[in-house]
Amino acid sequence: MASGAPGLYFEAYLQDEAPVDFQRIRDYENRIHEEPWIDGWTPTNTDSAFTDDVYFSDENDFVQKAPGGFTTQERYLMRWTGTLSVTDSGEYGFRTKSDDGSMLYINGEAIVDNDGDHGCSEMDGFVSLTAGESKYRLSTFLDRYFR
Known about the structure:
CATH topology: Jelly Rolls
Largest sheet: 6 strands, antiparallel
CATH class: Mainly Beta
Number of strands: 8
Strand order of the largest sheet: 2-1-3-8-5-6
Low-confidence stretches: none
Shape: globular
CATH architecture: Sandwich
Number of domains: 1
Mean pLDDT: 76
Number of helices: 1
CATH superfamily: Galactose-binding domain-like
Radius of gyration: 15 Å
Strand content: 35-45%
Structural class: mainly beta
Distance between the termini: 34 Å
């Protein structure tokens, strides 16, 4: 996404179409910022103007609001990328809540590590930011069917 552009760039991948057995985001962390993320794997859905909050209260909310027309029976991997602008330098807190894993990166550094195959859990992270723009990337996946 271009610097200063509103919204987030969204990519979704269906795990059943993956050329790898995806169990944790950190297994592919060395490629997390590359395009394509995993060789031979094309996003199933993309949205270059996703401007809603990256929050879904449950699987039904996700199916209704996420770009791409998901169903609750799919295993997926998603990335949101964009630019975060802060007006004041200081320490900022971030939180992910996910079932299964999620990883939040700011300027290429893992800030929130909520990775792994687990039930719904929350994890916090903090980072010092200087005033201006920072690169933002949130990755999340669901390895099992919704229950």
